[in-house]
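Continuing from yesterday's entry. The apo prediction looked reasonable, so today I'm repeating it with magnesium ion included to see how the binding region is handled. Same sequence as before; SMILES copied from the compound registry.
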Amino acid sequence: MATLTLSGIRKSFGATQVLHGIDLDVADGEMIVVVGASGCGKSTLLRIVAGLETPTAGSVLIDGRDVTRLEPADRDIAMVFQNYALYPHMSVFDNMAYGLRIRGMPTAEIRKRVADAAEMLEIAQLLDRKPRQLSGGQRQRVAMGRAVVREPKLFLFDEPLSNLDAKLRVQMRAEIRRLQKRLGVTSLFVTHDQVEAMTLGDRLVVMHQGRAAQVAAPMEVWGTPADTYVAGFIGSPAMNFLSAALSDGGRAASLKAGPTLPFADGPRAAADGTPLTIGIRPEHVEHRPEAADAIPLSVDLVEPLGSETVIHGHLPGGESLVARLPLAAGAIGDVLPVGLPPAEWHVFGTEGSRLPARQGVAAAASR
Ligand SMILES: Nc1ncnc2c1ncn2[C@@H]1O[C@H](COP(=O)(O)OP(=O)(O)O)[C@@H](O)[C@H]1O
Ligand SMILES: [Mg+2]
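Holo prediction written out below.
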């Protein structure tokens, strides 16, 4: 059981700065998922926690103890990699036992820990096999088992499911979640897959170009993304972004696509004419055949998914819009009347940051 604190973590490789100051407090037993596009610095951050890289600045604390300068072996952590890193010439048992043997653990204790972990992971019948005699999912379990037997303070996962096919990935995802909760080991899990992140994490760290763009619970990230990057990254199909300008004394947005619609959550504290980006998720676009104020969506592409249909189209003015509609609706070339309900809007300012309603600002200031 352990807490993890990262404070002001920076990392440069030569002249290139990869991490720009990451702060994070991980509670005991918490599963944090670090999610972001390839190259944003996820693995570098994980390797710094593991002790495989030294930060240029900042510190890593495990249970309040500064371990920034400690060797990996002295940090009491276990890491699971994408490529499993199993020893090909060793049996499953020996792969799992190896880390304990080199620490000089008594043989009886090693046997017990490996047997317990193997049973929990349902690989007890595979202990004599070599890695090449295992399926991808079984190898993944062995890699997990090797981490579990160590009974570490922290689990670190670097895209451990990326080499598995889609079905197995979903299954292993659920297993890792169950195992992590059952063992209660504080964990940091890195992935580029936003669905994996949403389903696994107690909280997410959405990384963008070496910075934490947002740290929050999955549904909070989905419901109130901090900026347009996070908004576009989490959710599939991705959120739509429409150009607008502030109008009516900060109470409404004039969409480039035509209508001026009032905000559902109150006025914004900026001058009329200020450029805005209005975000709306495809699932919140409504098909409104009866409404007089509907906006015409010209259909460019139709993706029937069975339970729903994804429509790709464009609005007057040319901006594209994706809609997820419950029924089979529309064919290429059709013009569908759609509604963009203001209650579902995400309002972003010029810099792409979420622009809170003025009442929100007042409430925050009076706290
Ligand atoms: N040892 C290294 N030397 C130089 N550049 C590196 C090194 N490790 C990582 N990088 C660079 O740092 C950036 C972030 O890499 P990484 O942390 O692996 O990203 P991610 O895991 O999010 O894909 C990339 O541009 C990568 O090329
Ligand atoms: Mg990586």
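Comparison notes:
- Residues 166-183 form the longest helix (18 residues).
- The two ends are 34 Å apart (CA to CA).
Will overlay with the apo model tomorrow.
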